[in-house]
Write a structure and sequence with these properties.
Blueprint lengths: L15 H14 L5 E2 L11 H12 L12 H15 L8 E4 L2 H12 L5 E6 L4 H8 L3 E6 L10 H7 L4 E7 L11 H12 L5 E5 L15 H4 L7 E6 L12 E4 L2 H12 L7 H13 L1 H23 L14 E2 L20 H12 L1 E2 L1 E2 L9 E4 L4 H16 L3
Parallel strand pairs: 1-10, 3-4, 3-5, 5-6, 6-7
Antiparallel strand pairs: 2-8, 7-8, 9-12, 11-12
Helix pairs in contact: 2-10, 3-10, 4-5, 4-9, 11-13, 12-13
This protein binds pyridoxal-5'-phosphate (PLP).
The site of pyridoxal-5'-phosphate (PLP) has 13 residues, from helix 4.
């Protein structure tokens, strides 16, 4: 039977990380002792103050539709957050709230990308960017940024990638999966290129901003080059910093005409995010600093552990992780090796499959993030899982010939 599915659906693939997570859940249900390094979310409970705020909001009757762009309460909290953490001043009509950063990224591309428009995406990248661009008829222009250059796009690479059709540069800092954080000097260099190309907009996805192991505050392009503020969209949300992935609240700051367009599109698609969840997010942004500091401290110690353990595995090399909660070791040293079963490992996908089958360790492969040969391991998991998992990975790699 043929189903009436649109041709649009053929333009993109489902998220590799969502698919990997589903596979792990399936294996666990079969009783396999799998250690899971695929999760892109903190292994913490949401802050009690957010849960209490949600409860209070529900009891107070905040159970109805909200304005599409977000409740005044949350928009004011976001306004203060941008001012406090990023030194950015946004009026309330320059702020929009959505059902997760993902939805806002989708909406921003949907509002701006026409058929054939190009979006520059440095690789490795968060899995969804290229698919969302393609779904909206755009062309992702992938720029490889290997570990030798710190996983970051250089001004020369950016300049070379820009064409008259370029609509956006997407910068995700700290980066999923590499952890890379752009320093002020690096951003300055990129801003100088962007200033010369007025057709190019800048999207900065800063959802991991609080997991920063360099000890320097993130620089904001809109402050480094104020003329860019009128074409910069800053994306953020409460999912990662406040362990609130399931509440589905993201937010963005940008020029009012773009925010209005996003509001218009969302008014005919999802509508406003759940009011109760917005109340919880506002409480987290206003009063959750100690929660974030605790989570960041926890991830910092796990980061040390996983880097040390992975660098003791023959064939893996993990450069110092700058931010977020992922290790992205290079696995070139494993390629060409033979498994005890006689299979030659030819790609990072082969390595991923070998580790799952031989060691019961679930990781993601670099190809899913646009840059091979690497593996992605989330360290938003317990130290016991990190210790045990890395031990298993080491034994499996030592068994290769
Ligand atoms: N941006 C990046 C870089 C991410 O890694 C993720 C989630 O994994 C998101 C955006 C989506 O976040 P949200 O849960 O707010 O939709």
């Amino acid at each position: 039977m043929s189903y009436p599915l649109s041709a649009r659906l053929d333009r993109f693939s489902p998220s590799a990380s969502v698919a990997a997570k589903a596979r792990v859940t399936e294996l666990l249900a079969q009783g396999r002792d799998v250690l899971d390094f695929t999760a892109g979310e903190p292994d913490l409970d949401s802050p009690a103050l957010a849960i209490e705020a949600a409860h209070a909001a529900a009891l107070a009757g905040h159970t109805r539709y909200t304005a599409t762009s977000g409740t005044p309460l949350l928009k004011r909290a976001v306004q203060r957050k941008f001012q406090r953490d990023n030194g950015l001043d946004y009026a309330l009509n320059e702020i929009i709230v959505g059902a997760g950063a993902k939805q806002l990224i989708y909406t921003a591309f949907s509002c701006t990308v026409d058929a054939g428009d190009e979006v520059i995406i440095p690789a490795p990248y968060w899995v969804s960017y290229p698919d969302v661009v393609q779904l909206n008829g755009g062309v992702p222009v992938i720029v490889p940024c290997p570990d030798a250059q710190g996983f970051k796009i250089t001004p020369a690479q950016l300049q070379a990638a820009i064409t008259p059709r370029t609509k956006w540069l997407v910068l995700n800092t700290p980066n999923n999966p590499s952890g890379a954080i752009y320093s002020q000097a690096e951003l300055q260099g990129l801003c100088e290129v962007l200033v010369r190309h007025p057709q190019v907009w800048l999207m900065t996805d800063e959802i991991y901003e609080h997991f920063n192991y360099l000890g320097q505050a993130l620089a904001a392009p809109a402050r480094l080059a104020p003329e860019l503020k009128a074409r910069t969209l800053v994306i953020n949300g409460v999912s990662k910093a406040y362990a609130m992935t399931g509440w589905r609240i993201g937010f963005a700051g940008g020029p009012a005409p773009l925010i209005n367009a996003m509001d218009k599109l969302m008014s005919q698609s999802v509508g406003g995010a759940a009011g109760i969840n917005q109340a919880a997010a506002a409480a987290a942004l206003n009063d959750g600093a100690s929660f974030v500091a605790h989570a960041a401290g926890l991830f910092a110690s796990r980061r040390e552990l996983i880097m040390q353990r992975l660098n003791s595995v023959p064939g893996l090399h993990c450069r110092p992780i700058e931010g977020a909660f992922y290790a992205y070791p290079n696995c070139a040293g494993l390629l060409g090796k033979r498994t005890p079963g006689g299979q030659v490992l030819n790609s990072d996908l082969d390595v991923r499959n070998y580790l799952l089958e031989a060691a019961n360790v679930a990781v993601l492969h670099g190809a899913a993030y646009g840059l091979s040969p690497y593996l992605r391991l989330s360290f938003a998991t317990s130290t016991e899982v990190i210790e045990d998992g890395c031990q298993r990975i080491k034994a499996a790699c030592e068994a290769l010939a």
